[in-house]
Amino acid sequence: MLFMKKIKAGVLLYALFMSAIFSFFLQFYLNRVVATERQNQAQLSASKAYLIADLTQDLAKDNFGQLTFNHGRSSYHKQEGELLIKVHLTDGQSYQYRFNCVTENKEKGKFSVANKTFTKSIEKRHFQK
To answer: Is the model's pTM score more than 0.70?
Structure first.
């Protein structure tokens, strides 16, 4: 009878030990899943903000202004050959970007980036069959 009690205690200790190891692995796995999801959300927010800033750069006509999008709003200000864009997303995060101002003169075929002027050259290539 005493031998049976020792076996039951050993099996109980083994089951307790295995459940502790399982809960440790489960906790580690769940923490990794949560961290990955947070990282994905941060990357998605940064991508949205950069897309809004890129669209703002294309749509910016004046020296300063503000644009509103579905996922946030952006304000821009041109100064010294740079375009400063501040993006505020609807979830409360803010991002700031600086782009070089690009202005193109279509009549002359020239464009300037940050007070430097370049000339477009178009080459005509003839392909033979």
So the answer is: no
Name every residue whose Cβ is closer than 8 Å to that of residue 97 and which is 6 or more positions away in sequence: 49, 50, 53, 84, 85, 87
- The helices-and-strands tally (H runs, E runs) of the chain is 1, 7
Q: What is the pLDDT of residues 59-83, one digit of tens each?
A: 988 899 999 999 999 999 998 889 9
Take residue 80 and report the two structure tokens written for it. 């010294």
The structure tokens 């050959």 sit at: 81
User: For residues 71 and 39, what is the distance between their CA atoms, to the nearest angstrom?
Assistant: 19
Q: Look up residue 119 and give its DSSP letter.
A: E
Contact by Cβ (8 Å): 99, 85? yes
Structure tokens given for 1: 């009878």
Residue with tokens 């991508």: 47
Distant-in-sequence, close-in-space partners of 117: CB < 8 Å, separation ≥ 6: 110, 111
